[in-house]
């Protein structure tokens, strides 16, 4: 799989130090054929899962994803920590850091909030953590966090809020390290550690924090942020777990008191904006009724009038130089949502919406070249691709998705491309794509 391009360097003020992106010299990347074969094997051997339709009761979270400590959700068995050590080459500072994975328990974190005080440097905070943890948080900051906001700046809450919390709470630290480890494993080297171990620790931590109604607002926010990061993990590794995670997130939000209780303060604002944003992207993949209900707000009320766009809207007054790109993003999102609504209304018996897709393609071609906002359009590209009816349209959107994957290295995009190519080869079935969405085994954002 492609390594991440280092063309977009995050701008950090008081955040995490840079210097993690250039890891190509240590790359031991598996071939695409091996990756596909491993995925098919793991799907073939996948164990039965428990139902996760009803996960909460009277404010109590039932975090049961049917996991064991040594088996991942797709059935792949990983060797114990004691069998793995690795090194990572940081080419910017010309230093080799050795990581003894067996020596890290994941429990040695900063015990209070002192490192959030401006008088303490971020590097000092990092030095208080285990070496592997320090590396993982840095790697998340530079490869994953940059993809989760409209414009990566000092306001990026995935860096300025989530990572300081990871110093304090193992629950968030394990979720962040899972995202970083899966990304590193797919794009740099499979020899750093076991991504599923971090993931399992995060799930186990959630199981130990089930009495949501009994917690204060801070603890509730920690649980919700951990779930948000786990949702990001499913984007990074292309896992079908996203539905279970999102349903946990939805019900945790309601059990925790919803907007009124959880939407206050800096943490609350971050949580509610990210929750509503992901809810918009996930709706068609959860059910047709949710897709129609949620996307109708964007298709018919304009994006900036929908609460799911609060996070995007917050950047508009700060970056007038990107007004053209932001206006086009609103237009493209509105078109993509309207495309979905119309396809659902017409059903698979109607002909292709060729003119709508052509308009979407033309609008996207007008997007400023080299804009730092282009990564926002992955979801739009996927919608354009599934409704494409000409070879030119199909190739255009597939190529766009490939470029997005070349930039971010997220496995959900490779899964989406595989799905599109398979569906394209099945004559007469492509127009039923809206019926496929609630069962797609990946989350496109």
TrEMBL record:
Q: What's a single GO CC term here?
A: nucleus
State the compartments where it is located.
Answer: Nucleus
Please give the InterPro entries that the UniProt record associates with this protein: Fun_TF
The membrane-spanning stretches of this chain are: 222-240
Gene Ontology MF annotations: DNA-binding transcription factor activity; transcription cis-regulatory region binding
Q: Where is this region: Disordered?
A: 1-53
One of the Pfam families matching this protein, by short name: Fungal_trans_2
Keywords in UniProt for this one?
Membrane, Nucleus, Transmembrane, Transmembrane helix
Q: Does this UniProt record's set of keywords contain Transmembrane?
A: yes
- Where are stretches of biased composition, namely Polar residues? 19-33, 43-53
GO terms for biological process?
Answer: positive regulation of transcription by RNA polymerase II
Q: Does the record's keyword annotation contain Transmembrane? A: yes
Question: Which PANTHER family is this protein grouped with?
Answer: TRANSCRIPTIONAL ACTIVATOR PROTEIN UGA3, ZN(2)-C6 FUNGAL-TYPE DOMAIN-CONTAINING PROTEIN
Name the UniProt record assigns to this protein: Uncharacterized protein
């Amino acid at each position: 799989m492609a390594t991440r391009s280092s063309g977009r360097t995050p701008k950090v003020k008081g955040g995490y130090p840079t210097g993690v992106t250039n890891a190509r010299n240590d790359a031991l990347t598996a071939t695409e054929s091996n990756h596909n074969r491993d995925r098919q094997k793991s799907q073939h051997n996948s164990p039965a899962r428990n139902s996760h339709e009803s996960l909460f009761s009277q404010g109590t979270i039932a975090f049961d994803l049917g996991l064991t400590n040594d088996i991942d959700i797709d059935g792949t068995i990983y060797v114990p920590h004691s069998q793995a050590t690795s090194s990572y080459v940081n080419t910017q500072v010309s230093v080799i850091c050795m990581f003894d994975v067996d020596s890290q328990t994941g429990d040695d974190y900063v015990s209070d909030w002192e490192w959030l005080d401006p008088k303490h440097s971020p590097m000092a905070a990092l030095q208080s953590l285990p070496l592997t943890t320090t590396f993982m948080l840095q790697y998340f900051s530079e490869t994953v966090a940059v993809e989760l906001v409209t414009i990566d700046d000092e306001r990026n809450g995935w860096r300025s809020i989530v990572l300081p919390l990871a110093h304090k709470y193992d629950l968030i630290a394990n979720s962040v390290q899972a995202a970083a480890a899966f990304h590193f494993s797919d794009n740099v080297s499979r020899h750093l550690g076991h991504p599923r171990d971090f993931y399992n620790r995060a799930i186990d931590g959630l199981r130990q924090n089930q009495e949501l109604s009994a917690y204060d607002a801070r603890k509730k926010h920690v649980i919700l942020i951990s779930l948000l990061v786990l949702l990001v993990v499913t984007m990074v590794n292309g896992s079908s777990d996203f539905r279970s995670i999102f349903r946990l997130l939805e019900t945790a939000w309601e059990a925790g008191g919803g907007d009124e209780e959880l939407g206050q303060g800096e943490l609350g604002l971050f949580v509610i904006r990210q929750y509503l944003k992901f809810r918009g992207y996930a709706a068609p993949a959860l059910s047709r009724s949710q897709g129609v209900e949620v996307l109708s707000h964007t298709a018919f009320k304009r994006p900036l009038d929908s609460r799911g766009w609060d996070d995007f809207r917050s950047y508009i007054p700060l970056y007038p130089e990107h007004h053209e790109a932001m206006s086009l993003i609103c237009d493209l999102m509105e078109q993509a949502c309207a495309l979905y609504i119309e396809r659902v209304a017409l059903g698979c018996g109607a002909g292709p919406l060729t003119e709508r897709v052509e308009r979407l393609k033309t609008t996207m071609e007008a997007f400023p070249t080299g804009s730092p906002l282009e990564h926002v359009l992955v979801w739009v590209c996927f919608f354009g691709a599934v409704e494409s009816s000409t070879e030119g349209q199909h190739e255009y959107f597939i190529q766009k998705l490939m470029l997005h994957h070349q930039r971010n290295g997220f496995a959900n995009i490779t899964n989406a491309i595989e799905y599109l190519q398979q569906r394209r080869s099945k004559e007469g079935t492509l127009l039923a794509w809206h019926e496929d969405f609630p069962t797609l085994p990946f989350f496109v954002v």
